[in-house]
Specification:
The complex is a heterodimer. Chain A contains 5 helices and 17 strands. Chain A is α/β, with parallel strands linked by helices. Chain A has a 9-stranded mixed sheet with strand order 14-15-16-13-9-12-11-10-17. The N and C termini of chain A lie far apart (37 Å). Chain B is α+β, with helices and mostly antiparallel strands. Chain B has 3 helices and 7 strands; from the N terminus they run ββαββαβββα. The radius of gyration of chain B is 18 Å and the shape is elongated. The two termini of chain B are 35 Å apart. The chains are: A alpha/beta, B alpha+beta. Chains A and B meet through loops of A and helix 1 of B.
């Protein structure tokens, strides 16, 4: 399969209220590495299994939440093509200069109808640690904390899920891998740009621009269990899990960073091919769809966001 | 699975209306009520504490301090503005007592929407 267009999630910028507590959480507990701190105080992090410059950006603010999520596209020509398609669709596109985030080239930036800022870029530097590519070991620095392998996806909450679905599928060429359909319309959509079960997801919510969680991939179910040990050992605020999602099949834990932003660590999940049908759930099994073992939503799932 | 749907109203022991669920013909009524509770559709039931992120970010546990002294961690300005702070509004997950306290739960402050009955129901 040739992958073109949007390749994968690149990075996400998260607002935190206490930078030192956030660094300890994302570096020591999640297991990320600090690439650098920018002149403006933003902190750039990555997982050791990622080649690119950074995947998590922490910005000190007086509230929690997510500033933006950016996807990497194939090349500059592809980026220009998306810019035209987005503008033709009727959404205003801002240009972000190369270097606004260190190591990242020119970006295009736009706000979708759910109130979330999404960006695309094609050029970026690599940074250490990163995987070896010649006669190499499994890792170059010893894994620590929850041993996160990559920033995998995010789930956002906001209005106009139907419009978001139309935009992502028609303009950015994403596929709808899975959806929850309620009697009064779409409740949630799980969108993929590659072969993962999801790269970004949205759930219907009256407030625009809200952030449900950022997710990190772990190697296996044993590492999910080890992450749960870490969550209790370091008194990290737990939401739910370890459990499994019916949607995507992912084995998961939801918990909160020191500013109240929800994190997920997960393992597994099915492989998506672009010819596969969309998998659907209705309200009878929405509990199993979200939390497969509990078979019902917890109170926080639909109401606790930053 | 049956596609036949019914509306199920539920009252509490004081005959106060609590809400409705959508039940399916081949589904136990209790199961549909559990789902309605999951969606926050049942009111006037014994309330659970509004617990969210427990780290000052999500605003669910917004409350007014009626009496007492406390120290505070950072809490989201989206849900506790400077004016709120002067009035004694806090997020209960982000304060620590320095004396006996009397607190009253407050609605979550919801921005950019007319009303959010689910969030206001605490």
């Amino acid at each position: 399969m040739a992958m073109t267009g949007v390749l994968r999630p690149g990075f996400i910028q998260i607002r935190v209220m206490d930078m030192e507590a956030a660094k300890e959480h994302y570096i020591k507990r999640i297991g990320l590495h600090q690439v650098m701190e920018g002149d403006d105080g933003r902190v750039y992090l990555k997982a050791a299994d990622e080649f690119d410059h950074h995947s998590i950006v922490l910005r000190k603010a007086d509230d929690a939440g997510c500033d933006l999520m950016a996807f990497k596209v194939l090349d500059e020509e592809t980026l220009d093509g998306f810019k035209k398609r987005i503008e033709d669709y009727g959404i205003e596109v801002d240009e972000v200069r190369a270097g606004e985030q260190p190591g990242i080239g020119r970006r295009i930036s736009f706000v979708i109808t759910s109130g979330h800022r999404i960006e695309l870029y094609s050029n970026c530097d690599q940074s250490d640690p990163k995987p070896g590519i010649f006669n190499s070991h499994i890792w170059s620095v010893e894994p620590h904390g929850m041993r996160a392998r990559r920033f995998d996806h995010a789930l956002f909450y906001g209005p106009d899920i139907d419009g978001v679905l139309d935009f992502f599928t028609k303009v950015l060429d994403f596929k709808l891998a899975e959806k929850v359909q309620m009697p009064d319309g779409l409740l949630g959509i799980w969108l993929t740009c590659g072969m993962k079960a999801h790269d970004i997801a949205f759930v219907k919510h009256p407030e625009p621009g809200k952030f449900h969680h950022v997710s990190f991939e772990l190697e296996n179910w044993n590492d999910v269990g080890r992450a749960a040990d870490i969550i209790t050992n370091f008194n990290i605020s737990i939401d739910i899990g370890p459990t499994r999602h019916g949607i995507t099949y992912g084995q998961t834990i939801y918990f909160f960073d020191p500013s109240g932003n929800r994190n997920e660590v997960f393992a597994g999940g099915y492989t998506y091919y672009p010819d596969l049908p969309t998998r659907a759930w209705d309200e009878r099994d929405v509990g199993k769809a979200i939390f497969y073992y509990e078979r019902q939503l917890n109170e926080a799932f639909l109401s606790v966001v930053t | 699975m049956s596609e036949q749907r019914f509306n199920i109203d539920v009252e509490n022991i004081n005959a106060e209306f609590c809400g409705s669920s959508t039940g399916y013909a081949d589904e136990r009524v209790l199961v549909s009520l559990e789902r309605a509770q999951g969606f926050g559709k049942l009111k006037n039931l014994p309330k659970r504490l509004p617990v969210g992120c427990r780290r000052g970010g999500c605003g669910i546990c917004r409350a007014r301090i009626l009496e007492g002294n406390y120290k505070r961690d950072p809490m989201s300005r989206e849900y506790v503005t400077l004016e709120d702070e002067k009035e004694g509004l806090v997020l209960l997950c982000a304060i620590y007592p320095l004396s006996d306290l009397k607190v009253r739960l407050e609605p979550k402050c919801v921005k950019n929407v007319e009303a959010n009955s689910q969030s206001l129901e605490i």
